[in-house]
Design goal:
single chain, alpha+beta, Thiol Ester Dehydrase, Chain A, six-stranded antiparallel beta sheet, 6 strands, Acyl-CoA thioester hydrolase, YbgC/YbaW, 4-hydroxybenzoyl-CoA_TE, hydrolase, fatty acyl-CoA hydrolase activity
């Protein structure tokens, strides 16, 4: 996969379940945070677009959990981006930093709601033009 963005994070103890591994729902938080950091790196404010009536929302997710992360593990969250019609597809993966072992991967499809209606977003197309 040709990843276009990455960020490092660390597992916090409260993100782990009774088995001592990261609860599956937290991977979605990690993935979303990575997408928001990616937008920020492009000079795009998710909040400002919302104020303009433009909301990118998750439409579908295909998730695979591979190797569990544990408390205090450092990890690298990476993403790639494609566009299919009006959908932006974020191909995301999380790797344990100590050994680059794949822990999570997901294809997360986003669509835009513009002023309350499903619609293309010239603003997102412009922000992503170098990648799609």
């Amino acid at each position: 996969m040709n990843y276009i963005f990455e960020t490092r994070m660390e597992v916090r103890d409260y993100e782990c379940d009774i088995e001592g591994i990261v609860n599956n729902a937290n991977y979605l938080h990690y993935a979303e945070h990575t997408r928001h950091l990616f937008l920020r790196s492009l000079g795009v404010s998710f909040a400002k677009l919302h104020e303009q009536g433009i909301d990118a929302v998750v439409a579908r997710m295909n998730l695979q959990f591979k190797t569990p992360l544990r408390c205090d593990d450092e990890f690298i969250s990476r993403l790639a981006l494609t566009k299919e019609g009006i959908k932006y597809v974020f191909h995301q993966a999380i790797f344990r930093a100590s050994d680059e072992k794949l822990c999570f991967k997901g294809d997360i499809e986003l669509v835009c709601i513009v002023n309350g209606r499903l619609a293309p977003s010239p603003e997102y197309d412009e922000a992503f033009k170098d990648f799609i």
